Amino acid sequence: MITAISWVPRGAAKTVPIEAEPPTQEEIEEAKKSIALGRAGGDADDAEGDEDDGDMELDDEDEVDEVAQARAAAKALGKSSSAAVGDISDGLAELNMDAYDEEEDELEVFSTGLGDLYYKDNEDDPYIIKKNDDDDEDDDDSEIEDMTIKPTDIVLVCAHNEDEFNSLQVSIVEELEDGDPNMFVHHEVPLSDFPLCTEWMDFNRENGDEKGNFIAVGTMSAIIEIWNLDIVDEVEPHAVLGALSKKQIKGKKPRYKKRNSHKNSVLGLAWNAVVRNVLASSSADKTIRLWDLSTGQCAVTLQHHDGKVQSVAWRSPEVLLSGSFDKSVIMSDMRDNGQTYHKWAVEADVESLVCDPHNEHSFLVSLDNGMVQAFDTRTASSNSNSGQPTFTLHAHNKAASAISFCPSKPNFIATGGTDKMVKLWDISNNQPSCVASLNAKLGAVFTVSFCNDSPFLLACGGSKGKLKVWNTLSEPAVANKFGK
User: Fold this and answer.
1) Taking a C-beta distance cutoff of 8 angstroms, is the pair 41, 52 a contact?
2) If you ran DSSP here, which 8-state letter would residue 384 be given?
3) CA-based Rg of the chain, rounded to a whole angstrom?
4) What is the pLDDT of residue 123?
5) For the packed helices 25-49 and 66-77, what is the interaxial angle rounded to 10 degrees?
6) CB under 8 Å to 355, separation ≥6 — which residues?
7) Which residues contact 315 (CB under 8 A, 6 or more apart)?
8) Residue 435 phi/psi, 5° resolution?
9) Distant-in-sequence, close-in-space partners of 176: CB < 8 Å, separation ≥ 6
10) Helix H or strand E encompassing 26
11) Which of 47, 419, 431, 458 is deepest in the core (most CB within 10 A)?
């Protein structure tokens, strides 16, 4: 399934990506030791793990770090960092290596005539393709050329899960002459756990003045992975925000060694494009955390909600909005670290929250009951609940899971729902009307997102694991109303 989508601004990606460094011999040897150690200690660890089924604070001098071992092994072997030691041993068992030399049919070791199994000289072997050094160089050049990202290309990143393999798929979207998009996967990034949300950002923690091409990923395991999208074949994230314990047991609740970490799944992310070293995250642990990307540390924790916090969005560089399963939206003033805040009541659990890029006072929320509600921040008051919605729209027959504003056309929005529909709306004068709708054959729709660089392109993803990019301008009603 596809759970989240982020567009990369045109020109932010390197023309030619960097290839990750292959593992050193030391890393390979360390991986071998880690695998052996994991096999020896697996049973004891599982038995010990049964005693712990809750959140705990641990010291740094704790048990053997199995997560780090698995990641080291994955890095050395070129596999996803989600591959645990047990997965490797299971794979070897499936190959039945003990019976590798046993064949049902006897091989004829010596043959008559010209040897089928052995040739004295490679020149005599008809199956060897002769190639000189120049050919090798040409192949390398063609591989680099294949990875080139043209300045006109648009890059789209989606969080993907298939058969328990979690990844980021980095795709190139080319606009054809007829306006229809052509899309192909450029490269894939392995993730350690199920991805729930993504957020593109340009902050480079190694050099804050130099912009980069990074994406933050909120995962089921309560950590935030940050990946450098300009590096291909990488198996370790650029950075990790939050920390699991030195011991994580499969099937059990994770334990934590740092107090300033989320204690449950990360459900929402919002990068502050003005204060570029700040990333906000929301979690099923009912908290919101603000991270200093330059240090990787949590700077502020907000605990205003009574339920899971599904979504966060920056209304301005100092004002943060959050939507929760406690059926509320809260606006926090970060100039006093969120001590001042205002609350709006909504009809149901919040699924998605977006700020109107064309109106500094307006924001929309999509809800679990299929409704979309609009609010004006000027109705905020010191009361426990602020003003009423400016409109309420019955958008979907099931949960309205996603919502997105067209970046160049005011009052033009898209919604996606678990009723499998994607719908386009005109919300002019706070009187919403449906302009077009599409069953994109994606299953339940989890995410929709308009592209900033080509504002009529809408990316959609859902439970079937497929990605669709829809040129909404191809719809006559859209062209008539918004195409001028």
Assistant:
1) no
2) S
3) 26
4) 58
5) 150
6) 313, 314, 315, 321, 362, 363
7) 321, 331, 355, 360, 363, 377
8) -95, -40
9) 182
10) helix 25-49
11) 458
Query: To which residue do tokens 């192949």 refer?
Result: 139
Beta bridge partners of 433: 426
Task: Say whether pLDDT at 396 is over 90.
Answer: yes
d(CA 85, CA 253): 19
The rounded mean pLDDT for the chain is 78
Question: What CA–CA distance (Å, rounded) separates 203 from 279?
Answer: 10
pLDDT band, residue 179 (cuts 50/70/90): low
Which tokens go with 35? Answer: 């695998």
Place of tokens 């921040």: 377
Give the C-alpha separation, 453 to 176, whole Å. 15
The torsion angle over the Cα atoms of residues 235, 285, 382 and 354, rounded to 10 degrees, is: 40
Grade residue 408 by pLDDT with cuts at 50, 70 and 90. Answer: very high
Q: d(Cα 256, Cα 247) in Å, to the nearest integer?
A: 9
pLDDT band at 92 (very low <50, low <70, confident <90, very high): very low
CA angle 180, 183, 186 (to 5 degrees): 160
Residue 471 buriedness (CB in 10 A; 0-12 / 13-18 / 19+): middle
Output the pLDDT for position 371: 97
Give residue for tokens 């045109």. 10
DSSP class per residue in 364-428: EEEETTSEEEEEEGGG--SSSS-PPPSEEEE--SS-EEEEEE-SSSTTEEEEEETTSEEEEEE-G
| Residue matched to tokens 């909404």 | 472
CB atoms within 10 A of CB 141: 10
Could you write out the DSSP letters of every residue in 455-469? TTEEEEEETTS-EEE
Cα–Cα distance for residue pair 468/484, rounded to 1 Å: 25
The answer on pLDDT for 160 being more than 70 is yes
> Alpha-carbon distance 78 to 226, whole Å?
19
pLDDT recorded at residue 391? 95
Q: What are the tokens at 400?
A: 């309205």
pLDDT digits (tens, 9 = 90+) for 196-218: 999 999 999 887 778 999 999 99
In degrees and rounded to multiples of 5, residue 127 shows phi and psi of: -90, -10
Strands 309-316 and 297-302: unpaired
pLDDT digit string, tens, across residues 256-314: 445 688 999 999 999 999 999 999 999 999 999 999 999 999 999 999 999 999 999 99
Q: pTM value?
A: 0.74
Report the C-alpha gap between 365 and 346 in whole angstroms: 9
Amino acid at 344: W
Q: Exposure pattern of 182-205 as b/e (b: 16+ CB <10 Å)? A: eeeebbbbbbbbbbbbbbbbebbb
